[in-house]
Amino acid sequence: MTVAAGIGYALLALGPSLSLFVAVISKKPFLILTVLSSTLVWLISLIVLSGLWRGFLPLKTTAWWPYGILILTSVAFQEGLRILFWRVYQRLEDILDAFADRVSKPRLFLTDKMQIALAGGMGHGVAHAVFFCLSLLTPAFGPATFYVDKCSQIPFFLVSAIIALAFVTIHTFSMVIAFNGYAEKNIVDQLFVPIVHLISGMLTLINLASGGCVVGIPLLYFMALLTLMHCGKMVWRRLTENQNR
Amino acid sequence: MDGSILESIGLEIIGVMAPVSICMLLVVLLVYSLSSSSSSAAAPIRTAANLVYLETPSDSTTQKLEGALLNALVFVIIISIVTFLLVLLYYYNFTNFLKNYTRFSAFFVLAAMGGSIFLSIIQHFSIPIDSITCFVLLLNFTVVGVLSVFSRAVPIFLKQGFMVALGIIVAAWFTNLPEWTTWVLLIALALYDLVAVLAPGGPLKILVELASSRDEELPALVYEARPTVSRNSGVRGSNLDLLVGGFSDSGSVELQVVPRNNESDLENSDYTAVAIRNQSEVGIGGEEGGETSPLVPNSRERQSSSSGSSEYSVDTSGQYGHGHGQSEIVADEERSPLVELLGLEGEREPVGGDGSDTFVTATRGIKLGLGDFIFYSVLVGRAAMYDLMTVYACYLAIISGLGCTLILLAVCRHALPALPISIILGVVFYFLTRLLMEPFIVGTSTHLMMF
What we know:
heterodimer, A: mainly alpha, B: 4-stranded mixed β-sheet, 5% strand, Presenilin-like protein (chain B), Gamma-secretase subunit APH1-like (chain A)
């Protein structure tokens, strides 16, 4: 249970992203840059949030509502940032198109745009997994493991890796959904993303109850699957529409 | 059609970032695996970087701060002296001496410092190997390393690999410095870098200008991003610009120095060469070298002049100076840009105060000085001694700083120091992460709350 366990936890959280990265992102330098910058944006948002909350932590109470407020503010802030990210992306898209014209290459295809959104979402997701899961893994490489009181059936590292995987999925694909929603001015999609994000965040509050993780994690995965399916359906619809045209 | 421009944009940037990332990753792994074992904390070594003050954990904060400031001051002064010495030597054409000195120091770094790192790895992982085999392997490694760093006949991949290896070795060595000294030193070097490259009369600036006026390469160690073979120069050149926002019609990308002279050539095609240089920094001995290199081809479509086509940036040397025989130049450029690039690079001049080396940065397609590699890695390695979280934060900060520097390079077209932005961002993010973010993250995630 030492190095092998640590690597196992890390792969559990980041394995899917890793394969996605190798398969899709790594061949296109621009996408790598997108991943990096979106990771940086997420990191900055985290730093700002922790700066805001620094004075109040650690919370002494056992009540759940301060945590609820914490998650609410965090999600609200990050969703605001997503809109900003979209604005920047829009400008970037114009520049890219102009550039493509200049070097007489085709403009961005629909799939290119989706890949950029995917890369942006992956940056968020990876940042989440890295900071909430990987960075706490250091002790997992040692000989011991760690259990949290409230979820005493499973090692803490395993739980956090599992939760991180769900959030990676949600972050990655909700960016695709959001960008499409903005592009098509589709209100449902635009609202879908913050709501899913908020609900998922709130679901982790269940973990505060003793043994809550048994209930909370399946629910969280339900949200992740929902995001995934919605994203899949939407991409499929757009691609077929695009082909017909 | 694979024509999506996503595939062509940002290649140079990734070309620079990838080796830097690899270097940092390996340094972190090294620091991680070795530091856990070496809690023995051997007596802190005395080097040029902590001549004045040896930090001990029991000292008060003010003592540490003062001591660290003094150390950094002394170190920067040593570096400046060495750099001026180099400029002087270079000015009087002791180029061969400098080159050989660089070779010697590369040898020294690989053999002695590398050897001791290998030894500690062998000990730590209990690798069964006998001393003779180990010695032969080390000798091979070193000799190939020295050859590959300086000769033109070696595959670029090998050369790049050894540059990264040199960076890793020196950076791993630097992480032995005490904590306060490291931080103050990094900041001091970033400031020094800024002055040496940008201020009029800064040693690196002089060195670069001297080299470009002489059509020579600086003897210095430089990492050169692989010029991608045979691509259209057009696409390449302008990518950065694109990132910058369609900034200019001629794309030159680079970090540092831009030599250009248009003197006679305006009519024909103008070649702009952008050279980038990095600054180098020196290791303990404190030295540095600057280099310049020319870069990559820019495409510029500007003047439809005769030859018009693409320009390769050749060394500065190639281009400058030769106002006359333009045709020759053109021919040269077309024929051998790659070769020239290869040839140019590296020499390093180490100055060894205490047997430390110096690293110089190089230019590359974009060339990046080895010194930049080293000090980025030192920062990340130091962060690794605290926690993984700070490592990620510092890595992101450094990489984005590097990205900013590259973009600035495309905008301002002359040699830029690669250290300041990245180091400052890295330090800021380190302390923000350590002071603000960690309690937040640990607090929420141990309650299994995430968002």
